[in-house]
Amino acid sequence: MARIFMKGCEAIAEAAVRAGCRFFAGYPITPQNEIPEYMARRLPEVGGVFVQGESEIASVNMLYGASSTGTRSMSSSSSTGISLYSEGIAACASARLPAVYVNVMRGGPALGAIQPAQQDYLQATKASGNGGFRMIVQAPSTVQECVDMVYEAFDLAERDDNPVLILADGVLGTMMEPVELPEMKSDEEVKALKQARRHKSVCGHPAEERVLAEPGSVGTGQEARNIAAAEMYKTWDKDVKVEEFMTDDAELILAAYGISARIAKTAVKALREQGIKAGLIRPVRVSPFPYDAFGSLDFGRVKGILDIEMSIPAQMVWDVEYAVRGRCPIRECLRSGGQLMTKEKVMEEALKLAEEVL
Amino acid sequence: MERDLIVAGFGGQGVMMLGTLLAQATCDSTDKNVTYFPSYGAEMRGGTANCYVAISDEEIGAPVMETVSDLIVFNQPSLDRFLEKLAPGGALFVNTSIADPKIDRDDVNVVEVPVTEMAIEMGNPKVLNIIMLGAFIGYTEVVSKDVVLQEIKNKIGAKKPELLPLNEEAFEKGFAIGSAAKN
Questions:
Q1: Domains A4-238 and A240-357 belong to one CATH topology
Q2: How far is CA A10 from the centre of its chain?
Q3: CATH of the domain at B20
Q4: Which chain B residue has its CA at the smallest distance from A265's CA?
Q5: In the CATH hierarchy, which top-level class contains the domain A4-238?
């Protein structure tokens, strides 16, 4: 298939359309504006609906509504905008709706900086809203992965009746890279996907076939829902996705996700050239987290872990520490607030760690 | 091998277009990996703009780098700001019409291209970026001349075919300067 040179945000939008997404609502915020911009032009071409909401809150609630009709639906925002999604996404999770949304992360907290960052890890993986629900969270590190992970997200969301989050960042959203696009689902396929959900849809189908997708209920009903959701989360062991690069004989492990991971990967190669046995563990999905990849390391051989994130303080390090349980030192290599991770910075911190533990 | 480039100048000098042309050409006509990352302020014309392009046979890590193998600067502020990012042995392409190529480094190769004056002489000041792209390709041959000329045809030929001959001429003029500087 021919490769096309695309910007991350536009690739995300096109991948969604090809996956059968026919509804998008969103509110402008840098650095994800090219997603709604692209959707505003593209969705009407395929009989879909684009709405620029009057706010993030309106947009996420439209996502709730559209998802409950069985139409594949998506929204996107960035960091401080995603904070406003909390209530709506919690409602989607409670009502078990297959909403897909994208966070193209920028600096924070709050308005922070418009430049790229990875400062929403804990929010994304632990508490994207109240009530303790969980989601599969995809963490692409190339524009091609943005495409593949968005395309896949709709299937995952419908399989579990649960929201799926794509956790990208401003570098990925803004950069251009060659991509191969997946096949466009035909009108018939899109229609069949909607039909397949008619028994779960609130509206858009005959009255006798509707069920109520309520975001909450009183009394013991709520506990029953929570138990059902918890049972579903337990099936996610099979959904752990992790990339392990040169870890077989590694004495130093670099831990990174998303944009930082591709930078860490080049650092691993450079460290190897200097005779340091480095490897990379990269959670491809940050939820469910690949605890085993870290927990089952041979700590007789692995002498130290470097956690690399564009976040200060570090966030993913909580999960790494939880898996490692004190069996080797964990150090941090961090940038934030719009300052980008660089190979030079990773090398500097990795060499420091090598000196300390090797 | 990875080749990294920063292009920097005033908004309106075609900084981003040079970067996307090069990157798009690489994507369309080669098997190489390529990334393009734009960075600009809130201003459009008159503000500062810069972009990063990486071209490699292997996987590319950071799309934004602390040191690069090549640097193109269209004005003095860009030269002052980015020169420190050019790796030893790297190539510096200076728009000598408005930037001073005398620098206090002797570990880089300077290619002087008075693109502003050349473009005005050619009757269209806008083609300065295409002249510079020609010089860059002539000197580095990071991708072949034909690959870039084809992209110029695709991009400019499709939108404004009447400007195609001028742009091709601009590219050739720059290419000649770049090739000559290499030897």
A1: yes
A2: 16
A3: 3.40.920.10
A4: B61
A5: alpha beta
Residue labelled with tokens 């150090």 = A331
Q: Write the residue in B23, B27, B59 that is nearest to A265 by C-beta.
A: B59
Pick the closest to residue B63 from A173, A105, A337 (CA basis).
A173
Check if the beta carbon of residue A338 is closer than 8 Å to that of residue A259.
no
Q: How many domains does chain B have?
A: 1
What dotted CATH number matches A240-357?
A: 3.40.50.920
One-letter amino acid of B17: M
Residue A218 clears pLDDT 60, i.e. is over it: no
Residue extents of the structural domains in chain A: 4-238, 240-357
- Residues in chain B within 8 Å Cβ distance of A175: 35-37, 63
Tokens of A178: 């060659």
Q: Are B69 and B87 in contact (CB under 8 A)?
A: yes
Establish if B68 touches chain A: CB-CB under 8 angstroms.
Answer: no
Q: Distance, in angstroms, between B52 CA and closest chain A CA?
A: 9
Query: What ipTM, to 2 d.p.?
Result: 0.94
Instruction: Dig out the tokens for B20 from the structure.
Output: 């996307």
Output phi, psi for A29, to 5 deg.
Answer: -165, 135
Q: What letter would DSSP give residue B181?
A: H
**B151 contacts: CB under 8 Å, gap ≥ 6:** B21, B24, B25, B28, B29
Instruction: Report the pLDDT value the prediction gives residue A2, as an integer from 0 to 100.
Output: 86
Using CA atoms, how far apart are residues A177 and A182, in angstroms rounded to an integer?
16
- Reported in sequence order, the residue ranges of chain B that DSSP labels E, i.e. its strands, are 2-10, 33-40, 48-56, 68-73, 86-95, 109-113
Q: In what order do the strands lie in the sheet with B86-95?
A: A4-7, A176-179, B33-40, B48-56, B2-10, B68-73, B86-95, B109-113
CA-nearest of A102, A99, A109 to A78 is A102
Residues spanned by the domain of B9: 2-182
Residues in A closer than 8 angstroms to B67, CB to CB, are: 344
Q: pLDDT tens digits for A135-188?
A: 999 999 999 999 999 999 999 999 999 999 999 999 999 999 999 999 999 999
Decide if A176 and B67 are in contact by the 8 Å CB cutoff. no
Q: Which of A177, A266, A344 shows the shortest C-beta gap to B35?
A: A177
Residues 6+ apart with CB under 8 A from A336: A107, A117, A119, A310, A311, A312
- Identify the band that residue A95 occupies on the pLDDT scale cut at 50, 70 and 90: confident
Would the CB atoms of A340 and B64 count as touching at under 8 Å? yes
Report the distance separating Cα A156 and Cα A248, nearest Å: 31
Q: Does A340 touch chain B (CB under 8 A)?
A: yes
Q: Which residue has the tokens 């742009």?
A: B167
Q: What is the DSSP letter of B103?
A: -
CB A193, CB A157: distance < 8 Å: no
- Select from A120, A126, A114 the least CA-distant residue to A79: A120
